[in-house]
Specification:
Helix content: 40-55%
Number of helices: 13
Strand order of the largest sheet: 3-2-1-4-5-6
CATH class of the largest domain: Alpha Beta
Strand content: 5-15%
CATH architecture of the largest domain: 3-Layer(aba) Sandwich
Structural class: alpha/beta
Oligomer: single chain
Number of domains: 2
Bound molecules: nicotinamide-adenine-dinucleotide
Order of helices and strands: EHEHEHEHEHEEHEHEHHHHHH
Number of strands: 9
Length: 311
């Protein structure tokens, strides 16, 4: 990888991802960082003195770096990072630079940023590359990257090498914004499986079954899933799952609401018929507002379905 890497967005995911980049590159590699929360930047600089430099804007990050990555919450933030006049990434003189946005956002915004980049900086390249694996995957550098490009992209070697420092699996998805499409399809599936698993567990429990027995049966039958085995919504079934720790940690319910909502929007735009999307989204919307669920792991929807927690 190049000796100067830019990083924008040092939140729950961005901080451990950027930390892995530092750990896995040589002493000569410098990271230039910006976050709207100045404290986040100062803390990161302090922890990694000599190798990390604080910047005052996304433009300054791109002025100083050969390759720029961003990890911010939503489409509006991605627009702010790249498109703000004077201080955004595209205000910099980009030349041949490579830009990678890892945020999970709508495909329309990502394509708009890509088009604006192509128009103003014809030799630079912008990629969507959202991730799955959560904060733990970010810390352990085992993230899955869904890369919005073809396998024969001219930058593919560099992209695979760089993202490989932070993740275990990197999938070129076939073209611009298709990394986001893959990510949204994944979270749509896992979000609805969590609801179905919670509902089915509740049917078993209401009938007098021990949910542990039911989970063991699912595990060896067709209802098996990683939600069942590692993220079971019923407290006490998976000792390490957020459900067994008061739904703390994991994947915030507001993020699941965002991702299921974006997948439903995609389906509408494309004319793809959904039987479950609207109902699933409603439940995640409700949970995002509910004081018993807000800010907790998304599998907390079990609470809204009236699930028992006294196991
Ligand atoms: P976060 O809120 O913890 O961090 C986002 C960071 O971006 C914050 O530090 C914020 O200050 C910064 N930011 C916001 N606007 C900015 C701007 N204009 N310029 C510079 N910095 C700005 O969020 P997160 O959990 O790290 O998630 C980031 C993205 O990753 C989201 O799109 C999310 O859906 C996705 N994601 C999250 C997880 C997870 O488990 N948390 C897993 C996979 C994907």
């Amino acid at each position: 990888p190049p000796n100067s890497i830019g990083w924008i967005g040092l939140g729950l995911m961005g901080l451990p991802m950027a930390t892995n980049l530092l750990k896995k590159t040589s002493e000569e590699t410098k990271i230039y960082v910006f976050d709207v929360v100045e404290q986040a930047v100062q803390d990161f600089v302090k922890l990694n003195e000599g190798r990390v430099e604080a910047c005052k804007s996304s433009k300054e990050v791109s002025d100083k770096s050969d390759i720029i990555l961003s990890m911010v919450p939503e489409g509006s933030h991605v627009r702010a990072v790249y498109l703000t006049p004077e201080t955004g990434v595209l205000a910099s003189n980009l030349g041949l630079k490579v830009l990678i946005d890892c945020s999970t956002i709508d495909t329309g915004t990502s394509l708009a940023v890509r088009d604006a980049c192509a128009e103003r900086h014809p030799n630079a390249s912008f990629y969507d590359s959202p991730v799955s694996g959560g904060v733990i995957g970010a810390e352990k550098a085992t993230l899955t990257f869904m890369l919005g490009c073809r396998e024969d992209d001219p930058n593919i070697k560099l992209l695979m090498q760089l993202l490989g420092l932070m993740g275990g699996n990197i999938f070129p998805c076939g073209g611009a914004s298709l990394g986001l499409t893959a990510k949204l399809c994944n979270n749509y599936t896992s979000g609805l499986i969590a609801i179905a698993t919670a509902e089915a567990m509740n049917i078993g429990i209401a009938s007098g079954m021990d949910p542990r027995v039911l989970a063991n049966i699912f595990h060896t039958s067709t209802a098996q899933s990683s939600i069942l085995d590692d993220w079971n919504p019923v407290p006490g079934l998976c000792p390490d799952a957020p459900a067994s720790k008061g739904y703390k940690g994991g994947f915030r319910v507001q993020l699941m609401k965002k991702d299921v909502g974006l997948a439903v929007d995609n389906a509408e735009r494309l004319g793809v018929k959904l039987a479950l999307g609207a109902e699933g989204l409603k439940l995640y919307e409700e949970a995002s507002q509910d004081e018993r669920c807000k800010d907790l792991d998304s599998r907390v929807v079990y609470r809204l379905l009236g699930g028992r927690e006294d196991w």
